[in-house]
């Protein structure tokens, strides 16, 4: 019983995005990002997996209150990104391209202050069921 | 053995779209379409289910050649809509709003001439795993 | 374009239930319902698929407003059955055993008055991913 | 309540098969069936969806006893085809090529005598999650 | 080839449960556990992922006999918890609340003596597809 | 931002195989591998999860070019194993039995030279949705 336990909660948001380095030519962006560089945007159903790791409270048998965690994720992640254009509507992606890797890191940065500091936080983000990223964070 | 059989093939494309009647005010569009009216677009991973119904050839045991059907769907549906903005990049949606219902009907119209006329064609389109439409067509 | 279109919306609820005919002996209930007759209850994650069928409005491209449909399903189905004991908490199942077939029919009865009468309504209910029922209704 | 209800049960089996008309040349089989004509066989995880349609017994709330249906499917379908080579081990496919369409029809023929005659029986067979067939039968 | 390999096997059980600290007031339990504190119970389709980690036998290419592992999981986990009320029927949860975290730890304790001591054992438990826990154990 | 990120890409192939130690008797193979020892082969839809772990390029926000990774996996894994008999068609399994563990290790060996040496590579292989293996490699 001395091993840490992880609890996972899934969330989702539907968003448009474009992958392109602003200072690059269209050709170079197409070469690197292919169809994802379409200047008119495309989009995805993003599935977010939030992992919190730590020790279970012996009285309640829970690691973190899932009701509270669900509200935090809704407010901080879903309300922020759902039905948005990540490039145009979201200041988080002004200086960082909204790749699946970067969105994963940004969600970690957003949620980290809301999770007790003695618990670890990890984020996995599915851009499609066949293409996803994971940021184990701390 | 006299009943018709259906064969199904799944395909997918990732696209951006916006739901709004161009002649309406932003307020009226928001009231009707909610977050889907975001003028900067949002997006989805669309899953297309193509159904072809008819009788099996007794010698080959097949209804329609799946290799050929797969190529038709790739060329006519996936290449046309994948990584596109349905409102800006696709002439099919100049006069029709790209709702899940309309995209379903449009895909039926596109594929119908490519399927032998003695076979029925139906389309189901998943906008998300929890929100989808079906057009049984003919 | 003269064929009707269907739009589908998924919902879910987690509930406990027991399958047993009250007037039967425990032996007869065990013979018929097996482990499902456990008098202390067991439970499921129920997935509800709501289908509405009719014609698309040519101006908006929609069949029924999904925002409104979602609210109706939340209020009438999810709030009513989620985290409930179907046998003890839900008057709908006082005189009908909460089998997957009956729950399907009951959800149809509950939702029917809330859907415009010119649209058809069908319900599919997943008790598990491998065991489900469908009531096409009208 | 006068509409028929359907109950569905999923089953599965893992099998090898080859698609080729025995009297055809290798070239003609490759042209028609592509990689599926590999004479050394390939294989799939088949998912079978069995649908039984009829009226619910008002006392028990069930259409057909699922415990019994599960045993019939295990004995007649899973035990017969699981971990088999459909071409070499299964007499059902001596005169019929084991296409997804034909396997669907064969399963219907096998199960039909075991289902009460006042109930309809339909079979859907997934060869992969993206390629499947349906035989509505009677 | 010197890295350990993991083999995974899924199992499932359907059960009822209630989350509440017996010595707390109904108000405090509702505040902490929300709808999960319903004294009449609710339920879930639990999916168990059993992971065994170690080195592959060079002759057979297997880490642990999956046939045997499947039987152990059926007997020790599925038969014990399937179609049960975890609070009323299962002595494992007399002194521990059946939260997803605790059920995960309990399954690890139950299976650990049945797995060779040179192999590691980890458990992941899905309470719903969107809410799950993991206990990496040893 | 100093933690490594992982990017995942799914691929799949459908193949036949048999599990048996060539030097063993049929009885001993049946005892160990059960139905998987069928000398006429059986088959599966294999799902491959390729994980690449490292640091994100600050300019592009990507870890590895997914377009390129997809082509490598198609060429090196899918083209090699799809619609093949792993025992008869694939020299990789002449001296190693194609268990899910060994296929996982073999795919790691095949892909490792194609991934930049400063990035880690891990493979997970689903033989069925309920039976899978993972090789974390390096």
UniProtKB/TrEMBL annotation, chains A, B, C, D, E, F:
Top enzyme category? lyase
Per its UniProt record, the required cofactor names are: Zn(2+)
Enumerate the UniProt keywords alphabetically. Lyase, Metal-binding, Zinc
Task: Write down the InterPro entries for this protein, in alphabetical order.
Answer: 6-PTP_synth/QueD, 6-PTP_synth/QueD_sf
Q: Name one GO molecular function term.
A: metal ion binding
**Pathway(s) it belongs to:** Purine metabolism; 7-cyano-7-deazaguanine biosynthesis
Question: Family, per the entry?
Answer: Belongs to the PTPS family. QueD subfamily.
The name this protein goes by in its record = 6-carboxy-5,6,7,8-tetrahydropterin synthase
């Amino acid at each position: 019983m001395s091993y840490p336990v992880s609890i996972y909660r899934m969330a989702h948001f539907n968003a448009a995005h474009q992958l392109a380095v602003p200072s690059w030519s269209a050709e170079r962006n197409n070469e690197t990002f292919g169809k994802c560089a379409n200047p008119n945007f495309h989009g995805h159903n993003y599935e977010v997996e939030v992992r919190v790791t730590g020790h279970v409270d012996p009285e309640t048998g829970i690691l973190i209150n899932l009701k509270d965690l669900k509200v935090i994720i809704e407010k901080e992640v879903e309300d922020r990104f759902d039905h948005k254009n990540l490039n145009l509507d979201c200041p988080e992606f002004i200086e960082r391209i909204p790749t699946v890797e970067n969105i994963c890191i940004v969600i970690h940065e957003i949620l980290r202050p809301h999770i007790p500091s003695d618990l670890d936080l990890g984020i996995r983000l599915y851009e499609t069921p066949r293409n996803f990223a994971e940021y184990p964070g701390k």
